[in-house]
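Lab notebook, bench 4. The sequencing result for the construct came back, and we need a structural model before the next group meeting so we can plan mutations. Quick request posted to the team channel:

Model the 3D structure of this chain.
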Amino acid sequence: MSRKVQFTKMHGIGNDFVVLDCLKSEIAEESLPDLARRLCDRRFGIGADGVILVLPSRVAHLRMRMFNPDGSEAEMCGNGIRCFAKYAYDRKHVTGTQMNVETLAGIKPLKLNIQGGKVASVTVDMGVPRLAPEEIPVRVDGVQNVIGYPLRAAGKKLEFTAVSMGNPHAVIFLDNVAGFPVEKVGPQIENHKLFPKRTNVQFVQVVNNREIILRTWERGAGLTLACGTGACASVVAGALNKLTSREVLVHLPGGDLQIEWLGDGRVLMTGPATEVFVGEIDI
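Done. Here's the predicted structure in token form:
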């Protein structure tokens, strides 16, 4: 027997999500993967790059869970957590402009920029990137960091830098990302044997020391208009490869993010969050 569930559609620079408020009503754990697949379907569901659950937390203001369109659960989502923060503040689930959010990648501190009584943008403390192969994870032995490591995919010889922002990323620098076959190469790298938990793939073009262009193949979601953790990983990789500074404006297909890799190792991400519409759906 179906029941109606209220949802809110949101996006962070084109990376779109179905937000479900689980503070008062729970959704059965075993149903979540299939529910995510159905809700994210752009023809038979609502359509989204992921489903976000707003949950109570014992260690932070709130807890966030995020499921990909293939039903897998992501450890963290940079664009999603900004939407999560806007949802929570605009509905008075939190009242201050500083909040902590519990995720599978740890507790993330957020600073909310308020305009007209609502959240316009959010700065997220994404924490310290993990660079050791076993922490990402990536199957590369004998190195401390995976920087400019050779990889063959779709008949192309490439080099990648591996970074975890709570979720794994393979960052590849190219001369021209616009003309690169991301849809063909991306899934092969996502599922490459080097990555035991699969990986997100970032294709990066350096414009100058403080600007990059980024296209993302997202693990479990495919080609997306934006990826917050991917933008952070790309700036870290740019600095490690001495291609960019540690403060970079990242241009994604859906909009821009400002990323700063601080001297103490933490990465800050600043960008907008937008509510599109609310509705209800039978599940």
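The first helix runs from residue 32 to 40.
Will bring this to the meeting.
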